[in-house]
Amino acid sequence: MDIAAFCTELRLDRTVRNELAPNWEELISGWNSRVPFFFDEEFFKSHYPPCHGPGMETLLPRVRRVLETLRRLPAAALLGHVLYRGAFVSTPAVFLKTLPDPLPCFGEDTGVFSLMISLAAVPLMKEACRTRGIPGEYAVAAQRWFGGSMLQYAEAHGGVPGREMQFSWLRNHVDGRLFRIGRLEYLMHTCPDWLPAVYRNGQGKLRVLCRDGWGFRADGSRSDDPALIVRRTRLAEDGVHVSGTPIRPDGTVEFGRELALDTREWRPLASPWDLCPSIHIPGGEPMPFEAVKDSLCRAKEFFFRYFGRKVPLFCCASWILNPAWQELLPRSNMAAFRRECYALASLYWGPSAGMKFLFGRSDVPPTELEAHNSAQKAFQQAFREGRIVAGSLLVAVDDVEKLGDSCYRREEAD
After folding, report:
1. 271 three-class SS
2. End-to-end CA distance of the chain
């Protein structure tokens, strides 16, 4: 099937055709004119339960309608092949961004079509674990995120079940770079450049300094936009001392003070080439700090056991860590996560950062949508007050066992 006939049969516009064209031959490679293996009711029944999403009885009628469409429209089956190959097989991956939702051929079952493609990644995720000597249970645990993302989809689609056709995050699991360990996920990479300069002394105390040249907005959040920057920080080393603008454990940047650390006593916590996994928080489940701490403790052991790496720190940047939640949702799990770790100054992500995770969409101001829970109401209030910013944090791996008593803030006070 050529690209013109494909787009005509599926009623896809020129925008989609133009996006497909540069990679068309790669994306249709291996196509045998049959419905792909993962579009099968038994495959769905076998792989869906660990997602902990809506009940099987809710989804099976939609699954059967999708299968009927695939049998009736060869181009729809080819679309499934194209999405699967681009997302999970091609190197580099090819992710399509212009496909409409709903797709004309699937209507309100588009999200279930996408869910079935997502489940096709599960055997590849298990294989990624197997080749690294990691138990397959970690791949199964990662499927819980599918169910969480289905909640967001339903929020934006009037309760209709499914998932968005966004597979880039799943590719990290397929490539063996992302693992779910208890409540949290961990993405493997070297020390990211958004982290500040972190030093530790022989007694285990931390000192954190802004990097040289960081720009800050008037509200105290970081920015790379020269038009928004009102102050910049400085970090310098003279061979005896390293000096810079300190960040307190609550994330406050002390712009009016310069802290000098004796380099004979204070050593960098991490080097640029160290493995410093970032924490990601799958939606759809509570995240009491007890579960967060348990995950961090298990992750410390995980990377040493399966990769032979002793990581110096874990880090996280997320809308969940917005400092506004400390005031607007003080007893929330989100506020506790920031409070129990070492909070940092973060880049500004824009006025809708995190909105899609709470409301399922971000194409309109949040104040135009109905708020059903306390988190949505707090988001609306923060939006009205201009306080929608991201947050970030770190935790030294050697400190994970002592978390749970605001240890970094308490040590600073002592």
Report:
1. coil
2. 71
pLDDT tens digit sequence for 322-337: 999 999 999 999 999 9
Distance, in Å, from the CA atom of 165 to the CA atom of 99, rounded to the nearest integer, reads: 8
Look at residues 85, 91, 87, 99 and name the one whose alpha carbon lies nearest to residue 6.
99
Is 161 within 8 Å of 62 (Cβ atoms)? yes
Mean pLDDT across the chain: 95
| Cis before 92 (ω within 30) | yes
CA 106 – CA 163 distance, rounded (Å): 13
**Residue length of the chain:** 414
Peptide bond into 102 cis (omega under 30): yes
How many CB atoms within 10 Å of residue 14? 9
Using CB atoms within 10 Å of the CB of residue 371, give its burial: 0 to 12 exposed, 13 to 18 middle, 19+ buried.
Answer: middle
Amino acid (one-letter) located at 28: I
- Decide if 217 contacts 229 (C-beta within 8 A): yes
pLDDT digits (tens, 9 = 90+) for 15-74: 999 999 999 999 999 999 999 999 999 999 999 999 999 999 999 999 999 999 999 999
